[in-house]
Amino acid sequence: MSWRRILLLAAALIAAVAGTTWFLLQRSGAATGLVRNVIGQALAAPFQLGRAQVDLLDGRLSVQQFVLPDPARPGRSLVAVDDVRLSVETDPLGGMLAIHDVSVQGAHFDLDLTAGHAPRIADLLHKSASPAAGSSASPTEITPLHVTDTSLRIRIDPSLPDLEILDLELHLQRNQRDDGGVDAAHGSLNGRARIANFDLPVELRGDLDLATGAARIQASVIDTAIDERLLQSLLKFINADLPANAVRGKLRHLLLWCEATLGSGTPPVFGAGFQLDDVHSALEKLPVPLHGASMHGVADTRGNGSARVTASKLLPDGETEVIAKVTGLFATPQIEVRGKGRNIAIDEDRKSTRLNSSHSSVSRMPS
């Protein structure tokens, strides 16, 4: 047999195998069985899979009705996903070479983080698939991710209501280089959600650098009224005996963020910042009642934790400012408070209030 016939025979054999594979994978039962086998190699916990479809010509893999029951809570689902679609690159025999992008629609997470119920990776993943196994190299390219119509329910303490996050949308995209090309190692995250307990819309942003492992994600809330409705919701989550109308004002900005270096083993850094305007409160614990005060502050966990809060317009007349700094929040806290004021009218009520509040002080601002 000549080499030409051998090559033709080999080509025909490969074509036949590829055609058979393609035909089988178009059948929902065969594709579902294949995907179930792949997922089963990674997950140690039992799971449910509705159906799967594979289209080799279009490079599409879709999975519907995936459910991962919670091993610690029989009858509850840890994760339930309506639809997952992957854009993939395959070889002629149906083997997956690369994943180009992932779309997730209708994912629902139910997390119980209380003692004895928090999910453990060892219960969910086989040892070979666990991140701690360290058998696979770190990814060098970001896979675009699109998440829509997703919700989270998180239980932190049995005595508190579950935190509910609805209408979550996330989009992770590769960044663009200065020359117009795609930078596959650097990505940006954009998204939004709604905290149902407080009816608060939240904007999400993030950055990911696979070259250095640096990652940052932040959530922000802007221009929200602090009113009785919001305080009633907040009081359900904090141990404070306050009336629902104790404080009113305007939350101009609230920022919560987290920075981490992936794969470094170092703990992440958490931080927060806020700005409040037109704050009114007559709480007896305050040294003076507030009538239109302004406050802003920042805090983070670096160096055992620190915080700085600045308050101004503490009195209806004159200029007042108090700055409080705290260092060593998670060790031995050190507190420093400074105050200054100008053109303040001192009457008997304010004089007695100031003298009875040893933690507050006022010094004159230089002329």
Write structural notes for this entry.
The protein is α+β, with helices and mostly antiparallel strands and 367 residues long. Helix content is 16%, strand content 48%. The protein has five helices and 15 strands. It has a 15-stranded mixed beta sheet. Strand 4, helix 3 and strand 5 form a beta-alpha-beta unit. The chain is elongated, with a radius of gyration of 29 Å. The N terminus and C terminus are likely disordered.
Offer a concise description of the structure.
Helices cover 16% and strands 48% of the residues. It is an alpha+beta fold and 367 residues long. β12 and β13 (306-312) form a beta hairpin.
Instruction: Estimate the helix proportion, in percent.
Output: 10-25%
- Please count the beta strands (DSSP E, at least 2 residues each): 15
In spatial order, strands of the major sheet run 1-2-3-4-5-6-7-8-9-10-11-12-13-14-15
Percent of sequence in beta strands: over 45%
Q: Main sheet, how many strands, which sense, barrel?
A: 15 strands, mixed
Number of helices: 5
Secondary-structure element pattern, one letter each: HHEEEEHEEEEEHEEEEEEH
Task: Give the overall pLDDT as a whole number.
Answer: 81
End-to-end separation in angstroms reads: 106 Å
Q: Rg to the nearest angstrom?
A: 29 Å
Which class do the helix and strand fractions yield? Answer: alpha+beta
Shape type:
elongated
Which stretches of 5+ consecutive residues score pLDDT under 50? 1-28, 351-367
